[in-house]
Amino acid sequence: MSKRENRRSKLITALGLVGLMLGLSAPMASAFSNANYAGRYACTSANRNDNQTAVIKYNPNGSGAYSAGTLVANLTFSAPFGTASPSASFCNYTLDIAASSYTIATDGTGFEQLVWTADPTNLGVCPPSFQDQTAIGLRNMMDSGGVAVIRAEFASANLLNGNEAGHGTCLK
Questions:
Q1: Pair 47, 1 in one domain
Q2: 48-82: b (≥16 Cβ within 10 Å) or e
Q3: What is the DSSP secondary structure assignment for residue 38, as one 8-state letter?
Q4: Distance from C-alpha of 14 to C-alpha of 8, rounded to nearest angstrom
Q5: 74 plus 2 within the same structural domain
Q6: What is the count of structural domains for the chain?
C-alpha cells in the first residue's frame, strides 16, 4: 500500500470513528405520549384561505383531557371590520372540557376532539357552538437557552363551524 493510500485509509477510519462517537453521544429521541401534551398552549389558527383566524389558549392536562380553554375569532369574515364596537368585533368561545379529549401516539402524532361553546354575548353573525376534530403533531424544539420546548402543529376539520379545514401552530 502506498503512503497516499495509507493516509486516505487512516482518514476514512478516523472520520468513521468520529461519526460513530457523535451518533452514540447524540440524545436519543424519546417516545411521546399524552403526558407530553400538558400545560398552557397558545395557538394561532386560520382557515384554508386565511380569512377566518382565531387565537386559542388551552390547557391539556397530560392525561387526554383539558382543564381549560378559550378561542377568540375575528369577526371580519362575517361583517366588515369596524362595523361593530371593538369589544364586539370578536367571537368568543369556551372549551367544553367534559366533552373534549385528545390522544398522542408514541411518534408525536395525535387527535383532538374539541367542543367549543359560544359566548352568549356574541353577535348573531358569530358561528354557533361547534365541534372540531383536529389532527395534531408534537415536536421537540430547543429554545435559545438550550431547553427543550414542545411545539404543536395541527390541522383542523371544522374551524369555526365553517365546514372548512384550518391549520395552525401552538407554543407552550
A1: no
A2: eeeebbbebebbbbeebebeebebebbbbbbeeee
A3: B
A4: 10
A5: no
A6: 2
pLDDT in tens, 148-163: 666 788 888 888 777 7
Express each pLDDT in 54-105 by its tens digit: 899 999 999 999 999 999 988 765 555 455 565 667 889 999 999 999 999 9
The model's pTM: 0.73
Residue 140 belongs to a domain with what CATH number?
A: 2.40.128
On whether both 24 and 45 belong to a single domain, the answer is: no
Are residues 15 and 40 both part of a single domain? no
Please list the helix, strand and coil fractions of the chain in percent, rounded to the nearest 5, in that order.
20, 45, 40
Say yes or no: 25 and 85 in one domain: no
Q: DSSP labels for 48-86? A: TTS-SEEEEEEEEBSSSSEEEEEEEEESTTTS-TTSS-G
